Amino acid sequence: MYENEVTNRIPVLLALSTCPRCTRMKKFLEENKVRAVMVDVDLMSFGEKKAVYKFLQPYNPRLSFPTMIVGKDAVIGEDYEGAREVLGL
After folding, report:
1. The pLDDT of residue 1 is above 90
2. Burial tier of 34 (Cβ tally within 10 Å: 0-12, 13-18, 19+)
3. Are strands 37-40 and 12-15 parallel, antiparallel or unpaired?
4. C-alpha distances in Å from residue 61, one per residue of 20, 27, 57, 73, 89
5. Is residue 80 predicted with pLDDT exceeding 90?
6. Whether the bond into 11 is cis, omega within 30 of 0
7. Spatial distance between the Cα atoms of 68 and 11, rounded to a whole number of angstroms
8. What's the rounded Cα separation, in Å, for the pair 60 and 56?
9. Backbone angle region of 70, left / alpha / beta, with phi > 0 → left and psi within -120 to 50 → alpha
């Protein structure tokens, strides 16, 4: 799951549709014109969620949101400085 994105350093934002922090991180990416895969995990089916959690576990063992994965790096929460760093902004 998301192997192509990870390999090609395409940002993957794992979020929840009802999470204010997630909404702000989505807005941050949009304002900075970052092309990212944005996934609202809470809107997925049970099987899809299970796969996402398995994908997320090595990057963020707490399974918290938002989590943005860029290559081998993960930005957890509203860490805009960390996001700028991994995105090269």
Report:
1. no
2. middle
3. parallel
4. 21, 25, 5, 14, 26
5. yes
6. no
7. 7
8. 6
9. beta
| pTM of the predicted structure, to 2 decimals | 0.94
pLDDT tens per residue across span 17-63: 999 999 999 999 999 999 999 999 999 999 999 999 999 999 999 99
Whether the Cβ atoms of residue 78 and residue 27 lie closer than 8 Å to each other:
no
DSSP string, 74-88: EEESS-HHHHHHHHT
Structural domains for the chain? 3-78 (3.40.30.10)
Query: If you ran DSSP here, which 8-state letter would residue 14 be given?
Result: E
